[in-house]
Amino acid sequence: MLLNQFLILGAVLFAVGVYGVLARKNGVMVLMSIELMLNAVNINLVVFGVQHGVVSGQVFALFVIAVAAAEVGVGLAIVLLLYRNRTSIDVEDFDLMRG
Amino acid sequence: MWMLENAFVIPLIPAISFVVILFFGKRYIGADRVHIVGITALGLVWVLSAVAAFQWTQRVENPPPDAIVQVQHHGDDHGDDHGDDHGDDHGDDHGDDHGDDHGDDHGDDHGAGSGHAGDGHGGGHSSPLIRPVISTFSDWWSNAGVNFAVGTFVDGQTVLLLIVVASISLLVHIYSTEYVKGDRRYVHYYAFLSLFTAAMLFFVMAQNIIQLIVGWELVGVCSFALIGHWWEEKPNTDAALKAFLTNRVGDVGLLVGMIVLWGTFKTFDIDVINTMISTNPGAHHLALLVAACCLMAAVASKSGQFPLHTWLPDAMAGPTPVSALIHAATMVVAGVYMIARLYPVFYEGFSIGTSSINLMAFIGGFTALIGAGLAFAQWDIKKVLAYSTVSQLGYMVMALGVGAWTAAIFHLFTHAFFKACLFLGAGSVSHAAHHTFDMRKMGGLRKDMPHTYRTFVISSLALAGIFPFAGFWSKDEILLGSLVGQQNGYPLMLIFGCAVALMTAAYMTRVIWYTFHGEFRGHGHPHESPKVMTVPLWILAGMAVLAGAFNLPGPVLEPIGLEGLAHRIQTYAEPSVYLNGLGLSHPDPSLTMALVGLALALSGILITYLYYWRRIGLHGLTERNRYARRGYTILENKYYLDHLYNDVIVETVKRPVAKWANRFNQNVIDRTVNTAGETARDVGRWVYKWIDQGAIDGSVNAAARGADSSGEGLRSIQSGKVQNYGQLLFGAAAVLAIVFVIVV
After folding, report:
1. A70 in a domain, yes or no?
2. Mean pLDDT of B448-458
3. A14 FRET partner, CA 20 to 30 A, in A81, B155, B209, B673?
């Protein structure tokens, strides 16, 4: 079983996602990076499920996919409204809460 | 005998009436109808007093076994010579068995059904030794083994005063409904009349000397309140204060005297004190002398004796019915009553039985004389009557001073009626003649005011001592008492008494001339007072005629076969249970003395009559003769006594006291206060500077500043950019993960 390889893949995917979330300026790209982080988790869930011979890991991955779909729906709607109001989806431009 | 044992009910009724009138009168009864409460209460009191008096006479006539003094038999050693004993072995042989001898003698006689002891004394009228009815209700409080009891002490003297106070108070209540009608303090007036009555009734039935003091002060307070009834005018307030302060001077004497009595006998009980003295006369002479002198000061203030009489004429500032009730008939006799109640103290203290002059007799006689003298120089009808009261009170004190106990109490009894009548008559005159008391604005009122005139003349004749009016009988007894005395006569007192008899008749005739005869000198049309005022006048005038009948001497009654009614006051009122132990004797009635007294009074009237009606006499003497004028000036200025008190005594005492007090105030009290203030200010300043500003404010400010600067520092983190927050979040998570890895 190539457990370590799958875990490394998940970690790399997660790191790529974190980088995308922290460094990309485009709001849509940030949302896509979040999807990367979620899918990295999904890989971990599935791999551990296979490893232990239970289906709950895969079931949990399906839940995460469903929730992620809903989440990205809401996120894209926010991005769409941001664009309508400010004609920009650059997250650097949105700092109304600055102290 | 229920009433005698429960006599406390009698003062309780007017006391309740006082509370009801004062607290509920205005709201629930109506300000103009409160007199109904007072008159009802006084009517009840009068009835109960009459019942008490009747029961007392029953007790004397048919004494129950426990009422007679129980004695031991000593064989045939009868004390029928106790007068001589007192004279010969005074201070020598007054042991217990001596007192028992007297009791033995009288007890036996009474048991045999004889009213006469036949002990060779004077008229030989001896009363059975009836004990007073003493009810002790409770031990009020006790301290250091001394019990202070509350109770009533009822004997003949008490019931006599009950009748006098109740009668005159009732009549004054009725009279006042018209006299003070519409007064702004009508409720207050009636409330204090009730309180006064309650206090006086309480006083006369005091069981111990503490109660005497309480009653004494209570009547003083009522007197103060009623003299100052119209306090809007300064002279009235001054008069009230003068009365109160003068009485305070005497009250010091009262307290000291009572303390001396307590120190000597270790009891407050009047009965015990009197019994101890009368069964053992001669003991404690010095202590009794001191006590008697101190109590004499109290008598001088309350009963208007020289030299503290000056408040009494000023007390006429009060409403006239009050003057009649308090300052003529009842309260001012409190002093006389107190002497009579504690007579053994005075009798032994002043050695009345053996001396021929003593302090009490002299003060009384002298007061009678100067009071009568002052009555000539007054134009205010009430002040004439006030000085007359001073003079008559002097008579009573003089009578007590010469040992004529019964004469004094008899005179108290008769004087109360005719002097109340005179005062109410003066009030009636003033009521009719536009509220003036100045005799120069009266005159000729006899036609307009026939009832007032007649009652006034009757009472004046009684006061002057004209046969057969009440004053004649009592005055005659006093003169006789001075003449005979006890062991020795009191010649100086007799001279005083005779002079006063003449002067009394003369000044009363002068008053009648100026008020009722001649031409009317005032304004407007005088009119007779309404019935509600004249009826009390007639009742009192009736008593002024009849009151003498209560103590007629035997020889007067023998021809008409009523000698059994002779000396009723002596029989019923005299506390012979104490006085017999002292060896008090009664003089034989003397026709000569009576005729001399009558002749003096008649000549007084005659001289004045000739002077005013017939214009004969030394008219204009005061204008022509330097000495006469000077004498008149002295009288007008009341012997300069007020000047002496106010300008000399008060000033000399007041100045240094005030100066010293001021210095003390400035140097000691003020300095202490200032130092304390300055210290407090310095401490406050230090606390402000170091504690408040430094510690408390400093820490609060520091906390605020810390919060401020930390907020400034943290502010940069709050960039508002989501990605910065994300960086922090992941950075922190990474750090925590590293720490977790390292630690675990």
Report:
1. yes
2. 87
3. A81
